[in-house]
Design a protein that fits this description.
Blueprint: H1 11-18, H2 20-23, H3 32-50, H4 69-77, H5 87-109, E1 114-115, E2 120-123, E3 126-129, E4 132-134, E5 137-144, H6 146-153, H7 165-176, E6 182-187, E7 193-196, H8 206-216, E8 230-231, E9 238-239, H9 250-253, H10 257-260, E10 264-268, E11 271-277, E12 285-287
Parallel strand pairs: 5-6
Antiparallel strand pairs: 1-4, 2-3, 4-5, 6-7, 8-9, 9-11, 10-11, 10-12
Helix pairs in contact: 3-5
């Protein structure tokens, strides 16, 4: 694929322009070499998905240093067995990986230079593997639901960043000596693409952040809750925060809820609610949690 003197800032518009022939019922000029390379990347993504590593983080990595402190404490110190993932969740992971390869292919097809794919970097003893650089800037490739995509498109990720994406990006940039990178994100529901570049005020002092999290995760007891519980309706019932729903430590973390009985799970039409306080028993099915 031809490389031009382009910059990261135009990558989205350039991708759309490169696909314009398809909107006019004309074929794209893609070489067999590029098609074969894309096929190999898809095969590698599938192989990686089919051979998962054990769940749980036994050490600090660049990919987790931005997570809430209590969650990281449990990641490193918990002896509890992890929840098993549903097959549907694993399928979601698969097409997420494959779509990321599609997005990278489109970046290259649009004439932008992609390098340093899966490069190993290290800051303060913390290692990580960056997705890539595009036109010399660190870029994290993401696929997202419509809800999550909105945070990138509107630039509000810093207000709700439970996975620590901004800290992760900042760590990669520190290692690369750059500071103008961002997130290239594909909306899995609509196919829309956006580029979100956090400004310097949004990015943490990554050295101090790493020092702090190293100290906290070595304590004998976990820090305070990552997120406060929230009211479930007006009945006086309370549930874990939305960000906690996908945490594998939620049952251990909230084991003292409901007067020491732990979380109670109720199946609403909108999905499962994990209640920490039940003042009025919901008139929906209660699910027994089994590890």
């Amino acid at each position: 694929m031809k490389k031009n003197n382009k910059t990261l800032d135009t990558v989205v518009t350039d991708i759309y322009k490169s696909l314009k022939p398809l909107t006019e019922n004309k074929k794209l000029k893609i070489s067999n070499k590029d098609i074969d390379a894309f096929g190999e990347s898809m095969k590698e993504a599938f192989r990686h998905w089919a051979k998962p590593e054990p769940r749980g983080d036994s050490k600090l990595r660049m990919s987790n240093i931005g997570k809430p402190a209590r969650q990281l404490w449990y990641d490193l110190n918990s002896k509890e067995e992890s929840e098993k993932l549903e097959p549907s969740t694993l399928i979601k992971f698969l097409y997420g990986h494959l779509l990321e390869e599609v997005l990278l292919f489109l970046v290259k097809f649009a004439g932008h230079e992609v390098s340093n794919e899966q490069k190993t970097v290290e800051i303060e003893g913390i290692k990580g593997h960056m997705d890539c650089t595009i036109d010399g800037e660190v870029v994290d490739i993401k696929t997202a639901s419509g809800f999550a995509f909105k945070k990138f498109k509107e630039g509000t990720l810093q207000e709700d960043d439970p996975f620590g994406y901004i800290s992760q990006l900042t760590g990669y940039e520190k290692a690369q000596g750059t500071n103008n990178g961002g997130f290239l994100v594909l909306n899995k529901e609509t196919g829309e693409i956006t580029l979100y570049k956090p400004n310097d005020f949004t990015k943490p002092n990554i050295i101090k952040s790493i020092e702090k999290i190293k100290t906290v995760t070595k304590e004998d007891t976990p820090p305070e809750l990552c997120y406060p519980t929230v009211a479930e309706g007006k009945s006086g019932n309370y549930k874990i925060a939305r960000q906690c729903n996908w945490c594998r430590h939620k049952f251990e973390c909230h084991k003292d809820s409901n007067e020491g009985k732990g979380l109670r799970i109720f199946k609403y039409a909108k999905g499962l609610s994990y209640l920490t306080k039940v003042k009025v028993t919901p008139k929906v099915e209660e699910i027994k949690y089994e590890r």
